[in-house]
Amino acid sequence: MTAFAIAQQKVERIALPASGLPEAILHDVEEKGYRLTLDTGWTADFWPTKQLLEKEKNVPGALYPNLEPGGFAGIIVLRQDISDYRGQTIRAGAYSLRYELLPQDGNHLGVSPNPDFLLAIPASDDPNPVQPWTLKKVVAMSSKSTGSNHPAVIALDNAGEPGTMSKTDQGVVFSVAVATGSGTEKLGICFTCSASQ
Question: What is the pTM of this model?
Answer without folding.
Answer: 0.89
